[in-house]
Amino acid sequence: MKHALIGLAAAAALTGVAVTGATSGAMAADKLLLKTPIAFSTSLPGLGSPIPRVAEQLNLMSGGTLRMKVYEPHKLVPPFEILESVSSGKINSGYATAGYWAGKIPASPLFSAVPFGPEAGEYMAWMYYGNGLTLYQEMYDQAGYNVKVLPCAIIAPETSGWFSKEINSAEDLNGLKMRFFGLGGKVMQKLGVATSLLPGGEIFPALEKGAIDATEFSMPAIDARLGFHKLVKYNYFPGWHQQATVFEVLINKDVWNGMSDQHKAIMENACKASMADSFAEGEAIQHAALIENVEKHGVQMKQWSDEMLNLYRTTWEEVAAEEAGNNEFFKKVLDDMNGFREGYALWKTNAFLPRSQ
Asked: Which of 1, 173, 186, 196 is the 20 to 30 A CA-CA neighbour of 103?
């Protein structure tokens, strides 16, 4: 008990968390406040909406001894500074997606979204019952970041993008300026697209001013909140670049190590519950957005041709090989994920109904 209290006291000094005596059921400090800046507005369903629900559950399950205060994007630290800020102790926690750290950690997009990669169920299977979580934490440790990572939300496929014209061939992509996320962005770059990774709130103004010609961001119900349909009318599917996207809570590791076992368990299980809840929320609300796009906004829903999907897939395989060749840990994670997927494919192809034609 003494050592646990000392550990949390040190974390408290770092982050401004109040420490008091132990209470019934708590093994260390009885109160901890996680000040949590987020990368996505809480108004975005499935993307930013899960984290306030996590905060609510932490408070309820802990009897008020473990709380989270959520800060909207840019209110405490900018989205792209969350990792550094949590690691340094400037803040004690944050909510984002690992793909935002690609410039610092090459393997990070593999824990966010993978082109032609696992769907949500398979992703979670690899995370929780394969080597995914172990590799996820190892990635941050190896890169020298003082953080504990917990996957805390997941969404199903995104749209493949919003365009001002039809895209029927590789030539139609060449020269486009497009907001694009993660490893899919490297695929688009190989196909002649000039990509940029803009935060959600900056995309519409960039489209409006002509700084970009096209964009992808998220699922239809999320994109609807950002108003892309007002400026670009061709919405493409399927989202080959993000069949599922994982979001993370990062906690300063000194703070995590000082938390009681009870608080750690509450945190871990609140995030596990959020994985299920966010997935369910995302799946429940997309069809209404699609109907509204077509019937009210004149959006044309388009399906990629087999030729274009094959082009994206073969280009992704080139990107994956290059990234693995350039970074040993990227290769380690990709090999492990692909090994898991090879086994899972036996189950998937036999157990699930084939896709409708």
From this structure: 173
